[in-house]
Amino acid sequence: MLTAENKKEIGIFGLVACLLMLIPGLNAWGPDGGLFAVSSFQVSLWGKYLTYAILAMSLNLLWGYTGLLCLCQSLFFALGGYAMGMYLMLMIGDRGAYQSDLPDFMVFLGYQELPFHWVPFNNFWFAAGAVLWVPGLVALIFGFLAFRSRIKGVYFSILTQALTYAVCLLFFRNDFTFGGNNGFTDFKDILGYSLNDSGTTRGLYIASALLLLTTYLITSGLLASKLGKVQQAIRDSENRVLFSGYSTTSFKLVIFILSAMIAGAAGALYVPQVGGINPSLMEAAKSLEVVVWVAVGGRGTKWGPVIGAILVNMFKSYTTQAFPDYWLIIMGSMFVLVVLFMPDGIVGVYKQVKNKIAQKRSLQIKEA
User: Fold this and answer.
1) How many alpha carbons fall within 13 Å on the CB side of residue 56?
2) I need a labelling partner for 337 at 20 to 30 A (CA). Which of 67, 190, 241, 246 fits?
3) pLDDT digits (tens, 9 = 90+) for 227-247
4) Are 344 and 303 in contact (CB under 8 A)?
5) How do the domains of the chain map onto residue ranges?
């Protein structure tokens, strides 16, 4: 039976779903230059914001509900993006600058044939699967070694940052067969549909919106399950969970892998909407930005990371144009202010103000 809280969540979920689907609808049926017209550029931009929101939700699953501050979410995001990017590069075919069946960067570097690990990415469904299993496999190997060694807290954060840095250096190398510093770019189409077509733009936006809503449902279902309750208990007191007979290593590993796969799926939708990918996307600084999104929106809440990711990136788009030299200072200040004055983020402001008013009234009653 649905509780009042469940009904409220379903209502919010439905409202958000309608709003997300409204933007491409306006783009499709609104007259050009009309009052409610939305350009393809704006649809693509909002699609990018939605992929960032999904990335923030994946970190929140770890940091907000499990207590693991992971600084390699950008790595998983980029790995999913590279998996899809490999398929998109192969679909260019002989339409590249060198008119070769090989990607342009391979021709430039003197490759005579396609490397063996690129061959399966001619198939879209293999690439779509790799979007999930590649970051999932990396998370499985790293997480198993880290959690088995009982590494947690700040040490886990440092190790994840070191992992990101190491992989990033590998991808910057030209002989690593992933485009080096320039990465992948100049994509033409996906599944036969031109990426420059407004219909494809709408389709990718809708796919991003659906993935965000699916991620919300997965998160909600997980938190209501036994796994989710143990997950939150680990965040509050891991030692008590251990004394209760649960293997915290297994629970943390499952959540870590799931969050990596969600981030990878978001990265796969990000790449065709942006039109390229390079190793800078997986730099450690990018993971720190994701931490800011989650903190600003509200860590440990369902919609907080979504709100934080979208608002911060909208503000970033404006600031990097108006004050390009001050964005990092502004972002750092924003994080400090949130930590000091809004520990529960934007979504927690109402509750925070309500509690202060209640405390003030309680003191007035006592004094009276």
Assistant:
1) 32
2) 67
3) 889 999 999 888 888 888 888
4) no
5) 4-283
